[in-house]
Design goal:
The chain has 456 residues and is mainly alpha-helical. It has 19 helices and three strands. The longest helix has 34 residues, at 66-99. The radius of gyration is 26 Å and the shape is globular. Bound molecules: zinc ion. Residues 282, 286, 365, 368 line the site of zinc ion (ZN). Zinc ion binds at residues 282, 286, 365, 368. Zn(2+) binds at residues 282, 286, 365. Its cofactor is Zn(2+). It is found in: Endoplasmic reticulum membrane.
Length: 456
C-alpha cells in the first residue's frame, strides 16, 4: 500500500504548491477550453472534405449501393455542419459563463433563494451546514439554464436534421415528456448523490478518497442492479429503439454476475438470422473477454486518480477567487465550486484520457470480431453445410458478420470515409473498412493454415 501512497503523497504535495500560488486560473482555463475547441474543429475540418467523395471505398464498392452511399454522404455532411455550428455555440456559451462570472451569480442566487425561505444568515452562521442545499440549488440553476440555452440546438437536431434524413420518430409531445422526465430523474437521483458526495468529503476531511470511492462504486452497482430488476426474465434484451429513432444497434453490457446483450428491434427486422447470429457472436466475444469488466476497472482507476489530485485544490482560495467569487466565498471555498473549477483545469488531460479510452475500446472491438470469426472457424463441417444450403444464411461467420456490419452502416447511413485522426479522437469503434480489412486478413491466414486449432 505504501508503494502506492508514497508517490500519491508527493504528487499531492506538488499540487498543493500550485494550488496555493496566486495563479490566473481563469485565463488558463479559458486557454485550455479554447485549445480543445480548436483541436476538435481542426479534426472536423480534416473530415469534412471526405463528404465530397463520390464513390465508396473499394472494399464496399459492391455492397454499398450508389443511392445509399449518396444518402450517407449527405447525412454525414449535414451532421458535420451541425457539429461545427453547435460546438462553436457551446464554446461561446462556455466562455461567456466564465467571462461574465455567471457561476458566481448562480452561487449567490442559490444562497439568496435559501435566505428567502427562512434559511437566514447562511453565509456567516451556516456556511458548512447550508453548503449542501445551496450546492444542490446551484447545480440545478446551472443545469436548467444550460438545457434551456441549448434547447434550440436539440430541437433542430431532432426535428430538422434527423427528420430530414428519415431517422426521427419522436413527436414534440414525446420530446417534451422525455426532457421533463430526464430533468425529474436527474434531480431525484442526482441531488441525494451530490449531497452524499459533499457530506463524505466534509465528514472524512483529507482522507475522503477511500470513502468516496466506496460510495461511488456502491452507487454504480445499485444503478446496475436497478437496470437488472427492470428486465428480470432474460439476459438477452430486445430494446424498442424504433419508438424514438430509426437507428439500429446491438451492444453488450454487464458485470461478471450479470451479463446482458441488447439488440434493437430495428436490427432484428432488417437482418437475416445468420447475420444476427454473427452479431451475437461478436457480442459474446465481449462477454468472453470480460471487456465490460475491464472498462469498468479502467474507469474506476481514472476516478481514483481524479479524486487523488483533488485534495490540494479542495481549499484553494486563489483558485476560487480568480474566478470572481467574493472573498466571503473564496476564503472558505465550497467543495462543489472547488471541484467544478478543478475539473475545468483538467480539460486537456481528460481529452487525452478520452483518446486512450477509445484506443482501448477499439482493441476490444478487434478482439470481439476475431472471437466471432474463430467461433465460425470452429464450427463443424455439417454446420457449414447446413448454412450453405440455407440460401440467404449462407457464408461463414466472417462473411455474415461483414454483411451485418455493412447492413448496419447502410441502415444508419453511417459515414464510410473517415479520417484516421478524427476517428481516433471521436470513435470507440474502428471504422467499417478497417474492420472488414482485418477480418479478410484473418480469414486469409486461416485458409493458408496460418492459424492453427490451438490458437482458437
Ligand atoms: Zn463490439
Amino acid at each position: 500500500m505504501n508503494t502506492l501512497l508514497g508517490p500519491l503523497q508527493s504528487l499531492q504535495n506538488q499540487l498543493k504548491v500550485i494550488s496555493d500560488a496566486e495563479v490566473d486560473w481563469k485565463t488558463i482555463v479559458v486557454t485550455f477550453s479554447l485549445g480543445v475547441y480548436f483541436l476538435e474543429t481542426y479534426l472536423l475540418l480534416r473530415q469534412y472534405p471526405l463528404y465530397n467523395k463520390t464513390a465508396p471505398p473499394p472494399a464496399l464498392a459492391t455492397t454499398f449501393t450508389p443511392e445509399v452511399f449518396d444518402k450517407s454522404q449527405k447525412y454525414g455532411k449535414d451532421k458535420a455542419r451541425f457539429a461545427l455550428f453547435s460546438s462553436t455555440f457551446n464554446q461561446i456559451l462556455e466562455i461567456a459563463v466564465i467571462y461574465f462570472d455567471l457561476q458566481v451569480w448562480a452561487w449567490s442566487a442559490a444562497g439568496a433563494l435559501l435566505n428567502k425561505y427562512g434559511y437566514t444568515g447562511y453565509e456567516a452562521r451556516c456556511l458548512h451546514t447550508m453548503n449542501i442545499p445551496q450546492s444542490i440549488i446551484f447545480v440545478t440553476i446551472l443545469l436548467l439554464s444550460n438545457t434551456v440555452s441549448t434547447l434550440p440546438l436539440s430541437l433542430y437536431q431532432t426535428f430538422v436534421l434527423e427528420e430530414k434524413h428519415g431517422f426521427n420518430k419522436m413527436t414534440i409531445g414525446l420530446f417534451i415528456v422525455d426532457t421533463l422526465k430526464g430533468w425529474a430523474l436527474g434531480f431525484v437521483i442526482g441531488s441525494p448523490v451530490l449531497a452524499a458526495f459533499l457530506w463524505i468529503i466534509r465528514w472524512a476531511g483529507d482522507s475522503f478518497i477511500p470513502w468516496l470511492m466506496s460510495f461511488l462504486i456502491a452507487f454504480q452497482l445499485i444503478m446496475a442492479l436497478a437496470t437488472r430488476l427492470k428486465f428480470p426474465l432474460t439476459d438477452l434484451y430486445v430494446i424498442d429503439g424504433s419508438k424514438r429513432s430509426a437507428h439500429s444497434n446491438a451492444y453488450f453490457y454487464g458485470l461478471p454476475w450479470s451479463k446482458h446483450i441488447v439488440i434493437y428491434d430495428t436490427l432484428i427486422k432488417q437482418s437475416e438470422p445468420g447475420e444476427i447470429e454473427a452479431v451475437l457472436a461478436h457480442e459474446l466475444g465481449h462477454w468472453s473477454y470480460s471487456h465490460p469488466l475491464k472498462l469498468l476497472i479502467v474507469s474506476q482507476l481514472h476516478l481514483f486518480l481524479l479524486l487523488s489530485a483533488f485534495p490540494p485544490f479542495l481549499k484553494s482560495s486563489p483558485l476560487v477567487a480568480s474566478f470572481g467569487y467574493p472573498p466571503s466565498v473564496s476564503k472558505n471555498p465550497p467543495t462543489l465550486v472547488a471541484f467544478m473549477l478543478f475539473q475545468m483545469i483538467l480539460t486537456p488531460l481528460e481529452a487525452i484520457f478520452g483518446l486512450a479510452m477509445n484506443a482501448l475500446s477499439r482493441q476490444f472491438e478487434w478482439e470481439a470480431d476475431r472471437f466471432a470469426l474463430e467461433l465460425g472457424h470452429g464450427s463443424s463441417p455439417e454446420d457449414m453445410d447446413a448454412h450453405a444450403k440455407g440460401s440467404e444464411n449462407s457464408g461463414d461467420m466472417g462473411e455474415r458478420l461483414a454483411r451485418a456490419l455493412i447492413g448496419l452502416h447502410a441502415e444508419n447511413l453511417s459515414t464510410v470515409w473517415v479520417d484516421w485522426l478524427y476517428s481516433a479522437y471521436h470513435h470507440s469503434h474502428p471504422t467499417l473498412t478497417e474492420r472488414l480489412k482485418a477480418m479478410d486478413e484473418y480469414r486469409a491466414k486461416v485458409k493458408i493454415g496460418y492459424v492453427s486449432k490451438k490458437d482458437l
